[in-house]
């Protein structure tokens, strides 16, 4: 499923048309030697810029699940991420613990971030990832589908880098689960993650895995 990194910036594309609840995916096929590095998009822009510099040098595309309020506060970062060949997706507007939010609030969190993405990039991002939960509830899948997202994207490797455990811990925790088809959950805005990214990409390569965008791992939104 992997497409060439040289195919140009990963635009968000047209708003997807979902029918009924979204499906939940936390990994890709185990039969292909690829993995997806994904990032929670928020935090200090200087650290985001450092991460983008590292990724450019490493030639590693990533998918950023951006918090809508962060994009609103930093409107230039959306195009910066896309123009670097990465992809943007929806990670709610304010990043609440979504399991503690009622249906109207869940719908608002999804649609407000979607609308920011559309305004800044021309597309919805194609994917949604809930905040504060590992596995989405039925309600979240229903509201994601209603907002036009056919797929909710989770992860099967989580090094908890947002806890700032240090580079060695981030790498070791990733190594414990990384395999073909893995989706890794990482976070922008953390210096330890910036410091670890060279080793994380090197780890993928050492296991014969090529980092790709989520769309190239699991296929386009359907």
Share in β-strands? 5-15%
For the record, the count of structural domains works out to 1
End-to-end separation: 15 Å
Order of helices and strands: EEHEHHEHHEHEHEH
Could you tell me the number of beta strands?
7
Helix coverage percent:
25-40%
The CATH architecture is: Alpha-Beta Barrel
CATH class: Alpha Beta
- Helix and strand content put the structural class at alpha/beta
CATH topology: TIM Barrel
- CATH-wise, what's the superfamily? Glycoside hydrolase/deacetylase
- Helix run count: 8
Shape: globular
Q: Write down the overall mean pLDDT.
A: 92
Rg from C-alpha positions?
16 Å
Unreliable stretches = 1-17
For the biggest sheet, the summary is:
5 strands, parallel
Could you explain how this protein is built, in words?
- It is a single chain.
- The protein has a single domain, classed as Glycoside hydrolase/deacetylase (TIM Barrel, Alpha-Beta Barrel).
- Helix content is 40%, strand content 13%.
- It has helices at 45-58, 68-73, 76-83, 103-121, 138-146, 167-177, 191-206, 214-218; strands at 23-25, 34-41, 63-66, 87-90, 151-153, 183-187, 210-211.
- Strands 2, 3, 4, 6 and 7 form a 5-stranded parallel beta sheet that branches. A two-stranded parallel sheet has the order 1-5.
- The chain is globular and about 45 Å long.
- Residues 1-17 have low confidence and may be disordered.
């Amino acid at each position: 499923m992997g497409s060439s990194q040289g195919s140009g910036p990963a635009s968000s594309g047209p708003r997807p048309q979902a029918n009924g609840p979204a499906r939940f995916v936390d990994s890709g096929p185990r039969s292909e030697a690829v993995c997806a590095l994904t990032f929670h998009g928020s935090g200090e822009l200087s650290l985001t810029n450092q991460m983008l510099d590292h990724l450019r040098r490493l030639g590693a595309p990533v998918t950023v699940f951006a918090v809508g309020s962060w994009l609103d506060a930093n409107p230039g970062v959306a195009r910066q991420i896309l123009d670097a060949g990465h992809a943007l997706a929806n990670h709610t507007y304010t990043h609440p613990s979504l399991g503690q939010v009622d249906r109207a609030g869940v719908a608002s969190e999804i649609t407000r971030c979607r609308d920011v993405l559309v305004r800044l990039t021309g597309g919805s991002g194609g994917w949604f990832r809930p905040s504060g939960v590992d596995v989405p509830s039925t309600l979240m899948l229903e509201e994601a589908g209603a907002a036009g997202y056919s797929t909710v994207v989770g992860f099967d490797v989580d090094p908890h880098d947002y806890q700032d455990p240090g580079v060695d811990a981030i790498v070791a925790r990733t190594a414990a689960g990384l395999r073909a088809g893995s989706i890794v959950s990482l976070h922008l805005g953390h210096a330890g993650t910036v410091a670890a990214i060279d080793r994380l990409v090197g780890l993928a390569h050492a296991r014969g895995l090529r980092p790709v965008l989520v769309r190239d791992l699991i296929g386009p939104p359907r």
